[in-house]
Amino acid sequence: MGVAIPRRYLDLGDLAIARGVDPLKFTLGLGAREMAIADPSEDTVSLAAEAGRRALAAARLEPSKLGMLVVGTETGVDHSKPVSSYVHGLLELPRAMRVYDTQHACYGGTAGLWAAVEWIASGAAAGRAALVICSDIARYGLATAGEPTQGAGAVAMVIAENPAMLAIDVGISGASSTHVHDFWRPLGHRVAEVDGHYSVQCYLDALAGAYRGWKERARAAGLLHTATLASEQLARVCYHVPFCKMAKKAHVQVRRCDLDDARTLWDVAGEEASAAAAFRGQVEPSLVACSRIGNIYTGSLYLALAGLLDRDAARLRGQRVGLFSYGSGCTSEFFSGSVGPRVVERVRALDLAGVLAARERIDFGEYERIMALNVPAGGGNQSPRPGSFAFTGVEDHRRQYARSSS
Ligand code: HMG
C-alpha cells in the first residue's frame, strides 16, 4: 500500500470556532479532528500518482511486472481522459497493460480492487500484478452540514498473487444496491449535493444487506462457526468512513444483524454496552488516520485498513478482518481477508506516521482563501515535494504536471 495526502490540513476546532459551532459536535459528535485541504497544485491525479509511486516502492515491484492500472475516483479531472492515463504517464508505466478508471461514488475503488483480484484469481493475469489506486478530493459547500466531513487523499494497492498484507477471500462477499438520491454531484458542480441524514440511513440499510450476504457465503464456505456472533469471529472490521462516528453506527448495525441468528445467545438488554466494547476493540483502532484526514471517498475504507495495519500489524498476522465499502447512489459490498505474512515489513514502508507528520496546519483564513480559488484553470504555483507530483495549470486545454527530480 501507499498513501498520499495533501500537504496542508485544517484543525476542526478552528472550523468550529469560525462557524460558531460547539467544537464537541465535530470531535465527539462526528469523531473528526482534522481535515486535509488540497491546495491548487494538488489534484486527484497528483495524489494518485504519488500514492502509486509509494505503493510500487513499498512492494519493490518492477513496473514491467504490471498488467493493469485501475483508478477508482468520483472526482476525475476530465469527462473522457481518465485519471489513470495521467498516472500511467507520470509513473512511466509500460505500454502493455490495461489502464482505466472505475466510478460509483465511494465504491469506485472497490470496483477496481475486485476487477484486479478476480483477474488474478482467474489466471488471466499470468503472474502479472495490478496497481489499484483510489483518489479523491471531497468537497461540500462552505458552512453546510457536510463541511466538517471534507478531506482529500489517495490510497494505492499492489494486487498480486501471494499477497504480503491481506489475502482477500475471493468469492466470499455480499453486495447490496438500491437507486437512491442520498449524495450526488451533478455535472459541472464542484461540490456534492447531499441529503445528509438520509445518506446515513441508506448506508446502514445497504450495510445490513451486504453483511447478511457475506455471512451466508462465509458460513457456506466454512469460515464461520455458530458458537459465537459472526462479527466477533472477525479480528477487526474496517468500514467506509465518511466521518468516524459513521463507523460506530455501522458496527452497531452489524451486531444488530447478528441478532438474526443469535437470539438465544444474546443478552439484548446488555447489547448497548457490548456494542460499545466491540466497537472499541474491533473498529476504533482503524480510525486514527481517518479522524486526521477526513473523508477521502474511494480511498476511505482503505485508509482505515492502512491505519489499522499501521497500528496492529504484528498482532493481526494470520487473522481475518472484515471490510465494508459503500458508494452513495448506492452500491455496497461486505467482504473479508486474512492479514498476510509480510505485513510488518510493508507497514514500515507505508510510513503512515511520517506521511501525517509532514503536513502543515493552516488557519481558517487560509482555508477560505483556498476554497475560493478557481481551480482547475489556474493550477498551483507550489513545486512538488520530493518524490511527488504537482498540477501546474492548463495549457491548450491540456493539464500539465511537474514531478520532483528526487
Ligand atoms: P448535522 O445535521 O449537522 O449533525 O450533520 P447532527 O445534528 O446530526 O449531529 C451529528 C452528531 O453530533 C449527532 O450524534 C449529535 O448528537 C452529535 P448522533 O446522534 O449521530 O450519534 N452532537 C454533539 N455531540 C457532542 N457535543 C455536541 C454535539 N452536537 C451534536 N455539542 C451529517 C451530520 C452526517 C448529516 C452531515 O455531516 C453530512 O451531511 N455529512 C455528509 C454526508 C455523509 O457523510 N453521509 C454519510 C453516509 S453516506 C456515505 O458515506 C457516502 C459518501 O462518502 C459519499 C460517496 O459515497 O461518494 C458521503
Structure report:
The chain has helices at residues 12-19, 23-29, 44-59, 83-90, 108-122, 196-220, 244-258, 271-282, 288-293, 300-316, 343-350, 352-357, 364-372; strands at residues 2-4, 8-11, 34-37, 66-72, 98-102, 129-138, 151-159, 166-177, 183-184, 193-194, 236-239, 320-327, 331-339, 360-362, 389-395, 398-403. The protein contains 13 helices and 16 strands. The chain is 37% helix and 23% strand. Helix 1 (12-19) crosses helix 2 (23-29), helix 3 crosses helix 4 (83-90) and helix 6 (196-220) packs across helix 7. The protein is globular, with a radius of gyration of 20 Å. The chain has one domain (2-403): 3-Layer(aba) Sandwich (Peroxisomal Thiolase, Chain A, domain 1). It is α/β, with parallel strands linked by helices and 406 residues long. The strands form 5 sheets. It has a 5-stranded mixed β-sheet, with helices on both faces. The protein has a 4-stranded mixed β-sheet with strand order 8-13-12-11, sandwiched between helices.
